[in-house]
């Protein structure tokens, strides 16, 4: 199967502060509600293709809440990635058959402007956040994900999630076995180190040599390091503060100023 990205949670310690950072970068997140059983609340940046960034923070600042409390407390940015599954139960069973540790299914709920959105989620891979968690809606998807307000924007969707790992070859083998993927392309970047990208897939694996990405890996373990939004890069630069252009796998990438390497745009 091709793991299609549903959304990427972006962790912060305070939602208002996190929303302001995105607004200062030219984005317009909107409040999405509270997770009553998790002690978190969220705002969302819904993209034209229906994927979204979930800006996630504790309801009470300083509390240990949610699935990723260390990321929330540290304002760590992208902390996981989620893919749509027709059936969470079936996908977890498939993962188990490939000797993948799973947790769930767990029922989720959030109060929205349409009423209560409900879904099932399941987590793959044990303690790290390299493999995605999976979601399927119990209520209509528009309850959970409203229409995008970004039609006409240079940003169209989530283009890449860059996942930092200790052992690139082991991670490549893990993804190849679980998703039956072809051999990956290889690249190198002075920020992310050695990279591997599977043709036609949105997940990129990296084994950093040093610097901030390596420090992130040592602190949090294998996890998302960066989320890159698919965009017309030149147009995006007129609407968002972007740093200098670099190239990954032959495509131009620019990172959003104020987010370091954790948020950027990639040429679609």
What are the SSEs and their pairings?
Blueprint: E1 5-11, H1 15-24, E2 30-35, E3 40-46, E4 52-58, H2 69-73, E5 77-78, E6 82-84, H3 88-97, E7 102-112, E8 115-124, E9 133-137, H4 141-144, E10 155-164, H5 168-179, E11 185-189, E12 193-197, E13 203-207, H6 211-220, E14 223-231, H7 233-239, E15 246-248, E16 251-255, E17 263-267
Parallel strand pairs: 1-4, 6-9, 10-13, 14-17
Antiparallel strand pairs: 1-5, 1-6, 2-3, 3-4, 7-8, 8-9, 10-14, 11-12, 12-13, 15-16, 16-17
Domain Glyoxalase-like: 5-178
InterPro entries: Glyas_Bleomycin-R_OHBP_Dase (IPR029068), Glyoxalase-like_dom (IPR025870)
Protein name: Glyoxalase-like domain-containing protein
Task: Give your account of this protein's structure.
This protein is of the alpha+beta class and 268 residues long. The chain has 2 domains: 5-144, 2,3-Dihydroxybiphenyl 1,2-Dioxygenase, domain 1 (Roll); 155-267, Roll (2,3-Dihydroxybiphenyl 1,2-Dioxygenase, domain 1), CATH 3.10.180. The chain has helices at 15-24, 69-73, 88-97, 141-144, 168-179, 211-220, 233-239; strands spanning 5-11, 30-35, 40-46, 52-58, 77-78, 82-84, 102-112, 115-124, 133-137, 155-164, 185-189, 193-197, 203-207, 223-231, 246-248, 251-255, 263-267. Strands 1, 2, 3, 4, 5, 6, 7, 8 and 9 form a 9-stranded mixed beta sheet that branches. A hairpin with a 4-residue loop joins strand 2 and strand 3. The longest helix is centred in the middle third of the chain and has 12 residues, at 168-179. The radius of gyration is 17 Å and the shape is globular. It starts with a strand and ends with a strand.
